[in-house]
Each structure stands twice: as C-alpha cells, then as structure tokens.
Amino acid sequence: MAANSIQNLRAHYAAALKRFVASSLPFEVLSTEPANARNIEPKVLYVLDSSFNPPTLAHMKIAGSALAESPHSSSRLLLLLATQNADKPSKPASFEDRLVMMTLLAQDLRANLQASRQIAQDDLPQIDIGVTKKPYFVDKATAIEASGVYPSSLEQIHLTGYDTLIRIFNPKYYPPEYNLRPLEPFLTRHRLRVMMRPDDEWGGRKEQEEFLTNLAQGGRESEGAKREWARRIELVEGKKAGEEAVSSTRARQAANSGDERLLLSLVSKNVRDYVVSQGLYKEE
Ligand SMILES: Nc1ncnc2c1ncn2[C@@H]1O[C@H](COP(=O)(O)OP(=O)(O)OP(=O)(O)O)[C@@H](O)[C@H]1O
Ligand SMILES: NC(=O)c1ccc[n+]([C@@H]2O[C@H](COP(=O)(O)O)[C@@H](O)[C@H]2O)c1
C-alpha cells in the first residue's frame, strides 16, 4: 500500500476509534477488505479476536487455515481488536496502528488464498476489521449478534489458540457464581476452532487433546460445563515439533532490538515494513 494511503487509513481509523470509544456501542465494524466490496450475505462468520500487537504469522495461520477450509465469498472473517483485555493492561502500539496492521493482515490473507487456490477476487471471503470493548468471549459473541451487522442466526466460529481455550474455561472470569454456566448460550449457538499451542506452559499435543476428552466425558460437569459442548470445539494442528514459537511478545522484542530478520520470521513482510517505518515498539 502506498505511504499516503496508509497515512489516510491511519487517520480514518483514529477518527473512527475516537467515535467508537465515546459511544456506548460494545462492537463496531470500522472497515471491510476489499473496501469497495458489494455486500454478500455470509453463511458463516469466523472471528479472530486479538490485541494484534502486532499481528503475527500465528494469527495469519489461525485465520488462513480456517478460510482455506471454506474459501468462498459466503464465508466472512472478522478481525476483532479487543480494546479491553481480560488480563493485560494496554501497551503500545496505538490502536490506530494496530488497525492499520490488521488491514495489512487482511490483504495478505486474501492474497495468499487467491494465490494458493486460484480464486477470483470477487469470490474470495470478505474480511471485516472491527473493535470491541468486551473482554470476554460470551459478551463479544452477544455484542456481534446484537449489532445487526450480520444475519441474526449467523453461526460464529471463534478462532483461538489453546491458551485462550483454557482461559475461556476458567471459572474465575464468571462472577458472581464463578462457574461455567455463563458459557451455555455461547457454546449452544456458536463454535470454537482452537489452534494447539504445544509448549512448556500449556503441555504437548496429547495433553491438549485430553482437555476435550475430559470435557466430553463429563469431567467439568461439577463446574457447570456440559459434555455436549465438546462437539462445538474443534482442535486443529498448530506449530510442528521443532518450529520456533511465534508470539506478539517475541515480535515486539525483535522490533525493540532492531532485529529485522527475526521480526520477519514472526510477522508478514507488510507488517514488518509498517512496524519498521513507524518505529513501533522502540520504547518498550
Ligand atoms: N503461536 C500461536 N499458536 C496458537 N495460537 C496463538 C498463537 N499466537 C496467538 N494465538 C492465539 O491468537 C489469539 C490472539 O492472540 P494474542 O493477541 O494474545 O497473541 P499473543 O502472541 O499470545 O500475544 P502476546 O504475546 O502479546 O501475549 C489468542 O486466542 C491466542 O491463543
Ligand atoms: N473468559 C474469557 O472469555 C477470556 C479469558 C481470557 C482472555 N480473554 C480474551 O482473549 C483475548 C486474547 O487474550 P490475550 O491477548 O490475553 O491472549 C482477549 O480479547 C482477552 O480479553 C477472554
């Protein structure tokens, strides 16, 4: 994207964010890729919620692998920036920079899908760039449903990593009773597609698969979970053994130390160029 169109886009997002923050809306779509798209009614909505700080190749893989299973214009992807996180305080970069990088991610995703599947531009899934003030998935899903942006019965498939699945199933997030019953409407109407994240903290593939087996066998019933929820959750392959772990934290560290080669192994070229040209994460 040319430098002046990037600056125009950043200014557009800065103004839209200001309006969103001042409004009482819990969710809003701020733009769509491609910008001039005719509105095609989606039959399935993939949602990738993240702080995109910055968007990494892991985000690309989570969203790209889902779209590759259903690479049609009747699939829609929503890249959703969480302006309030359940656990982490807000850090640089600014939200408008993250929205610009989300747009670059959306363009890269569509370009990769077109190249790998030989799909015509008009038949590719459209990608919405949205924002939400809601930190919990149950509330994000309700806010999306209530917005009227999509057909009311549309099934949402939330794309997450395994670490996030574990946190969704942690009763500490659900006062006042601190059990898992608040997940009922979410897992009745919607689904989770979870990318495994094998590492020291979250265990290997086998341990991650056991989470679903345990849920299906009623192992979480005492906390208010239903065994049939296991059928609403799909675990998919993440990084292979021996592959480097990719995270936004590592990308910020690479940018901070000026290691552009390492940065390029963690984010796409377009995102790397934006991070470097704007001097993002230098202050961290
Ligand atoms: N390498 C990865 N493998 C599997 N899932 C991932 C990976 N990186 C991110 N995700 C998932 O993508 C979603 C958004 O991730 P998030 O923005 O927290 O990325 P992160 O790299 O963990 O961020 P940070 O390093 O800033 O904590 C979460 O559901 C997270 O589990
Ligand atoms: N119980 C929940 O729904 C729950 C728990 C932890 C994090 N989250 C959300 O998951 C997303 C990713 O979180 P992190 O950036 O902390 O990995 C954020 O939007 C965060 O607010 C949701």
UniProtKB/TrEMBL annotation:
Gene3D superfamilies: HUPs. One of its GO terms (molecular function) is ATP hydrolysis activity. The keyword Nucleotide-binding applies. It comes from the Eukaryota. It comes from Rasamsonia emersonii (strain ATCC 16479 / CBS 393.64 / IMI 116815). Pathway: Cofactor biosynthesis; NAD(+) biosynthesis. This is Cytidyltransferase-like domain-containing protein. It holds the Pfam family CTP_transf_like. CDD domains: NMNAT (cd02165). GO terms for biological process: NAD+ biosynthetic process. GO terms for cellular component: cytoplasm; nucleus. Keywords: ATP-binding, NAD, Nucleotide-binding, Nucleotidyltransferase, Pyridine nucleotide biosynthesis, Transferase. Residues 49-127 form the Cytidyltransferase-like domain.
